[in-house]
Amino acid sequence: MAEDLLQKITALAKRRGIIYPNSEIYGGFGGFYDYGPVGVEMKNNLKRYWWRDVVDRRENVVGIDGTIISHPKVWEASGHVKGFTDEVVECKKCHQRFKVDEIEKKCPNCGNTEFTEARKYNMLFKTEVGVLEGEKVTAYLRGEACQNIYLNFKNVVDSTRMQIPFGIAQIGKAFRNEVTPNKLTLRTREFEQWDLQYFVHPDQIEKWFEYWKEERMNFYRGLYTKQENLRYWEHPKEELVFYAKKAFDIQYRTPWGWAENEGIHWRGDYDLVQHGKYSGKDLSYTDPITNEKYIPWIVETSGGVDRTLLYLLIDGYEEEKLESGDTRVVLKIHREIAAYRAAIFPLVSNKKDIVDKARDIFNTLSEKQKVVWDSRGNIGKRYRYQDEIGTPYCITVDYESLENGTVTLRDRDTMKQERVKIEELEQYIS
Ligand code: ATP
């Protein structure tokens, strides 16, 4: 069942331009995916939706956009050069490699029970900066996006009106040389993260941790339709890093089990202390009212954009039996995330008056919303296409439109059709 659904979603994603395997004409490249014309719209909508929730609607959160490559010392200070490792074993029979925590006695591929000794791999991608041999410097593609936020903490304090408590948000690419990339975009080697680092007074961390834990769950509750597929998972005390008092994942129930969507982390003063030490710079904060000087503590919320989009595809995918006996595939995805708010169809493509009227509607609506045009094939086929990519509304311009200025508006979820006045369309679909 689980594999079946994942296969269907992978096929749909390819068929309808949501996600393509990268370098497919060369046989693909493990752990890399591209977004197609529909997928890029969804992903942009998803990032905007996060930004609105985490940045725009709050008076004390600001955004940044940092680079993928930073000074190599950053990754020493953060602990990634030494400790960003996975333990890997190889099956002695089929020679496939796995992370140690992926195997339970038996090889997931062939069932064999003998493995090589576990070896540690660093997951950072290395690159070189500089042109002359001998002068090149080894640098890293960022293994997590959040480091740029710590690096710019001081800059933000000095260049904005922010006072603690405040947050710095960022959406950006991260790179990990994963041993076993799998399940479409669940685990890839290049992906995007959305991060919020919220800087607080040490006495206040408990309160803000609980606040963000709740806020982030509310965000996902608003995004997915199947609420029963969301839960918190608390990290066991014995597995916490030394600076964390607690940690929670927000998990989504996928067809193959509960899986991480986002982590809520208690980072204490770890990051600013480390960067202070390695850079020799004072990264403390002075309260403008009390004059107290301290290193702020951090609550981090860090989630995956691509992974969330995959979960949204899983969440919204439905096959419905129709009265006609046919099966309808429909993606009941959040309408703010759908690639297009509405599709506009001229009923026939060879009747100028109808096509012109439909074009007028397209031009008017596209000033406010992302809409899409389709004049190809019969209306039933056009509906089916839009259902599969989750377009909430279809608007058909027909002969009656020329007479009385109304169009047929069809709803994705109910398939109900009603006549709506052209002037009211914009309000209706927004
Ligand atoms: P996992 O346990 O799944 O490897 P993690 O705990 O290492 O994830 P974090 O470092 O906390 O993940 O990263 C934050 C978020 O980034 C995760 O919740 C996930 O949504 C996303 N993420 C992490 N690694 C990947 C990856 N290889 N591919 C896609 N998304 C990822």
TrEMBL record:
Its EC number is 6.1.1.14. Gene3D superfamilies: Anticodon-binding domain (3.40.50.800), Bira Bifunctional Protein, Domain 2 (3.30.930.10). GO terms for biological process: diadenosine tetraphosphate biosynthetic process; glycyl-tRNA aminoacylation. GO terms for cellular component: cytoplasm; extracellular exosome; microvesicle. Keywords: Aminoacyl-tRNA synthetase, ATP-binding, Cytoplasm, Ligase, Nucleotide-binding, Protein biosynthesis. It is an enzyme of class 6 (ligase). GO terms for molecular function: ATP binding; bis(5'-nucleosyl)-tetraphosphatase (asymmetrical) activity; glycine-tRNA ligase activity. It comes from the Bacteria. Residues 4-346 form the Aminoacyl-transfer RNA synthetases class-II family profile domain. This is Glycine--tRNA ligase. It comes from Candidatus Dojkabacteria bacterium. The lineage of its organism: Bacteria, Candidatus Dojkabacteria.
